Amino acid sequence: xxxxxxxxxxxxxxxxxxxxxxxxxxxxxxxxxxxxxxxxxxxxxxxxxxxxxxxxxxxxxxxxxxxxxxxxxxxxxxxxxxxxxxxxxxxxxxxxxxxxxxxxxxxxxxxxxxxxxxxxxxxxxxxxxxxxxxxxxxxxxxxxxxxxxxxxxxxxxxxxxxxxxxxxxxxxxxxxxxxxxxxxxxxxxxxxxxxxxxxxxxxxxxxxxxxxxxxxxxxxxxxxxxxxxxxxxxxxxxxxxxxxxxxxxxxxxxxxxxxxxxxxxxxxxxxxxxxxxxxxxxxxxxxxxxxxxxxxxxxxxxxxxxxxxxxxxxxxxxxxxxxxxxxxxxxxxxxxxxxxxxxxxxxxxxxxx
Length: 353
Ligand SMILES: [Zn+2]
Prior knowledge:
Elements: H1 3-10, H2 29-40, E1 47-51, H3 58-70, H4 89-95, E2 102-105, H5 116-127, E3 136-140, H6 148-159, E4 165-171, H7 179-182, E5 186-189, H8 195-205, H9 210-220, H10 224-232, H11 235-250, H12 255-266, H13 271-290, H14 303-313, H15 315-333, H16 338-348
Parallel strand pairs: 1-4, 1-5, 2-3, 3-4
Bound molecules: zinc ion.
Zinc ion binds next to helix 4.
């Protein structure tokens, strides 16, 4: 289920400039064009599903689409333009997150799932008239975190939507959603950017110095959202460093220490997936380092340690770890006990002496 991310990362192409357009998003032309075609034909569907790895920009694209659907700055103020004007009152309200006709739904931080009560609230909101705009828009972030009861309830809205309702859903992987939901949405897949695209965007739009931009772009592994977070939140790089240190030490640690780390990690909740993605990229780099393909590695600032460990572990064992981590991520998505899943992973990990 999560394998597409790994393969995407493996197939990152090289070089390309960053075309800018009024959607104010770096890259993702293919995804944006799916939406622009619907706008041009004035055939906007009732539901769209934006899919792709964490931090790739799914929620951002959903918000920009909502903004375009409500924009009144086009040639005909009654018709949604192909690009948002970014200047009209409606655009500004969406940008600031206070447009009364754009509703946001996501998993409450203290809950494991998006709940049926939230879907029922959506249904009562969607039944009433829009307050200002042409459309009543609902952005549901993280559809893969919706429980079955809530998803079945949402189906009713997808089957018989009010004429002005548009649902914009996001999910890391369409495979995690009910087929009955998938059959009622237009999918908008989003792909990783190239390292060159991320670097160029960081330099042009966030005014990051070229050297730092090169490092962040390599570490981002195609996820623009991750790169932007790293620019805005310095601790992110420190956290990454600490998490990789833990991983490197684990290889030399005994079973008791490994189980202590598994216990500690299992209490990290939401962060586990991000940590495992980091580990996945590390082991992918180990495969590459073992094959002397250093120009393709993501963790460019830790090349020396990668080479040293890869020489001891070898390509076959590293590849086995990539698959072990993917299996752990799948197990966690299916709500297997996190501590048990992580302990199994610890036992799979090769020992380096
Ligand atoms: Zn506008």
